[in-house]
User: Fold this.
Amino acid sequence: MDPVPATGLLAVSWLLIALPLAGAAVLLLGGRRTDRWGHLLGIATVTASFVLAVLCTVELAGTSGRSVGVDLFTFISTGRLDVSAGLLVDPLSMTFALLITGVGALIHVYSVGYMAHDPARRRFFAYLNLFVAAMLLLVLGNSFVALYVGWEGVGLASYLLIAFWYTRPAAATAAKKAFIMNRVGDVGLALAIFLMFTQLGTTSYAGVLGSVGLLAGGTVTAIGLLLLLGACGKSGQFPLQAWLPDAMEGPTPVSALIHAATMVTAGVYLIARSAPIFDAAPVAQTVVVVIGAITIMIGAIAGCAYDDIKKVLAWSTVSQIGYMFLAVGLGPIGYAAGIAHLLTHGFFKAGLFLGAGSVMHGMGDQTDMRRFGGLATKMKTTFVTFGLGYLALIGFPFLSGYWTKDAIIEAAFDRGGVSGYLLGGVAVLGAGLTAFYMTRLMLLTFFGKPRWEDGVHPHESPAVMTLPMVVLAVGSVAAGFVLVQLAPLADWLAPVFGEPEEAAAPAIPPLVVSVLVTVVVALGALTAWVFVGRREVPTTAPARVSLPVRAARNALYADRVNEAVFMRPGMWLTRALLWVDDRGVDGVVNGIGTGLGGSSSRLGRAQTGFVRSYALGMLGGAVLVAGALLAVTAG
Amino acid sequence: MIEAPDLSLAALTPLLFVFGAALVGVLVESFAPRHVRQPTQVALALVGTVGGFVSTLLIAGRSEVTAGGALAVDGAGLFLQATIAGLAALSILLFAERGLDPAKSAFVASAAVPAGSPRDRELLTDERVQTEVYPLATFAVGGMMLFVAANDLLVMFIALEVLSLPLYLICGLARRRRLLSQEAAVKYFLLGAFASAFFLYGLALVYGATGSIRLSEIRESVSTDGTGTLLVLGLGLLIVGLMFKASVAPFHTWTPDVYQGAPTPVTAFMAACTKVAAFGAILRLLYVAFGTADWTWRPLVYGIAIVSMVVGAVLGLTQTDVKRMLAYSSIAHAGFLLTGVIGLGGGTGSGLSATLFYLLAYGLTTIGAFAVVTLVRDGDGEATQLSQWAGLARRSPLTAGVMTFLLLALAGIPLTSGFTGKFAVFRAAIEVGAWPLAVGALVTSAIAGFFYLRLVVLMYFSAPAEDGPSVGVPGLPTTIVLAVTVAATLVLGVVPGSVLDLADRAATLVG
Assistant:
């Protein structure tokens, strides 16, 4: 169905993007003058966007068809290529807009406290605003090209924010890694877009998704797989998962916003948005499911072995996004379930990261869980909010994760046949592992004897930090119930994915699934208590460990494989880029006199060694050439 | 649906060979274990370039326009491709030399390490080698071979970038004198980008004037619609872009610095192959697209040829560094080559075959000369100061002898290929009535002869310095290069007939 033209408030929905973009522009261009109030402006723009998003959503709910197009301007118009920029306001895009601006606003508030002592706080808020604007463009754009622009924008912002503490070599390396691995995915997305264009002559959602039926099966599969490559890069899915845990070098609010709640779920959005393509390409859909299942396991296994609190959460994110991929790969039955899990995950994972940040804040930026312990009494608010997020994540009955993860597991079983049991089994096992590593994290961090380093005095974080955590904790508790039972998301998303269909005869009754999952989760948590909670925790990780543990510590060596495939060539590229940057740009800007001093001692007056005079010489020559030619032809 | 353009795969074999090798090289770089990389990469680059060379010989005689009109496979194009591939194979051998530098390679193992840092000093003696240079060079070779076959200004531009970008990189990879090397690379890059912009703008203007970027269509448009200001301006900017790559004065300014700073094997590669490629493109542009309007550009090229010869010869006199001296020699030779371009007349003169021959001869000789430069070393690497070469003949008569012979060839002394080549291009220029140019060329080649001879005198008749450089014992690759280049320089000087004949038969341009 073609979107109807926007009226009323929806006609200005571009303000959603423009507000944070303007915030970023002011903060970046305003320089030090904005230092004093920069963070407040950052919060204000995102909050305003959130309010607008709420109003737009209300208005959208009242329109018939619930799909509204906003034409902005002609973006590219050369020959056959005609891309006009516009927004598509529909339930799917507004759902994401609410998540992005809502969680975004909370994390902006939190960052005021977290980054209070950082001299570059203004720059941090500028990047965050930039990220929010790009992410909104990604989800609100009405064509794959607009999505790509946003896609690159969030990539850039993510890169800037991972490397925010660029003086740390680890941060700089991680940023490069993220950048390069994302490039691999981006190439896939770009190719998919080119393919759509050559085959259909358009890249708008309406044009492409409406005419999937006209394409040959092979072409659709190719487009689907290329889109999937893009999605895997951005969402840290197998085989491009390695960058995400490393991205934890960025400030913790960044990890919460970008690398847990929003950007990394863009891959899920892409696949859900391209639903008609994947529905028409069963092969691609199967690959999505398989990748989701593999990633669930990789993330969960690696999560069990790490001692760094943020890395465990990062692997957990990888694993949870695997669930979402699994869901959207299942086809119509799973889209809404995947998006619902995405939303609840956005709440509890953002909350968990903010909690981790709060712990680090109190522990002198320590991230090694072996040096925590016994924090439950010292940081009560953090403990309670983190604990609720933890329960939501592992799927404690009637909290958010329980509703949305169970829906995915049910859908997997409903696929039927051997593959259904296999996928469902993986999903259940993943839930058990999740319970194990998260319980281990809780025990190591908040219970047991303190194993703090000398001179560390844990204290609760200020209210500006705990308040967002409380809000997110409330979401972690309630969102699942609301989205699945109270006001089913599937109904709200029906204009996009079609009416929710009930499986005719579920392979396994939902109640059985529910009980099974709960039992497995309980077993996982119990195992963690037996192995971690009852014992003395050494402050350094034991070196002599069994093979499986060692494999898990190395993230199943996938990291290493990826390094061989992507990092080696990537490092070469980076080296080349850096070198050009260092030598070229600096050399021209400030170093002509000093940096190129090696030239000064040379003989030959004409050969000064200065690039500028060489270029001037060439320009003079060019003028002479043009003049001579004109003189000849005129004369 | 976009229809696939017609592709005559057979006619493209040389290109496919080289680009294929380059792509496999990238894979090898990514996947092969470190200890096998060097031999594999060398073998691969050699297979690519030699394969490209052999396949041009196998398809010699073809004359067609393929790839939807974007590529012209013709006699001149194949001759130039064979020249580039052959010279490139020799350069690769120089790259692969491991016996000279104590660290076993002329290339830095980790280019991103800041020069002069402790890590950098470690790398000086570290035996890790840089193998990325081979696929990069192979890509550049592919770009060059595409460049001379481009029948379309856009393809020409793309080929220009494909050949240039790897060159910018490998210029900065010298193991020793890193700052100089990196400075050279940046200069080359900045100025190269500047020149590319000229070329691109010229392309746009020509397209605006004629409505086409295909060389043959431009020619038709020129003959029917004449030459407007827009077209002439476009032509001028295209010429600027190409002359830059050919290091023709006044667009030569980068040449001495880059030739000096780049690792010497890379300098040899650039001096030989880039020159061939750039002149191939110049010939194609001027004769295929603008051949019917040669009155527009002839006076200009005339003037540029003189400027280039004079600048190269005169400034070469004051140089104190061997590599810089050879750079100015390269600039002077570019001027000589332009006399051959003038000698093509309306497209019927013998200038084309003369230019083809000159390019081959000059390329071989200059690679040989730079190969000798890699041999003369002291504790800090290559000793390129002229003063350090004093009395070299007493230390190593053979090396000095080889260098003398090659310098004589560059100076154009009879019985060397340099003489045959100069003779051919000057004759072509005189045939079309450009005798003042030929006279100027003779005078400047005499001036240029001075600085070659100065080095010869220095090597034979000066007392060696106390702590002068030693002459390294070349490994097998460098020995092969020296043997081939010296032999070729001699053969092309003594019995050039068959090769001149070949160049004559190859001298056709389609489009």
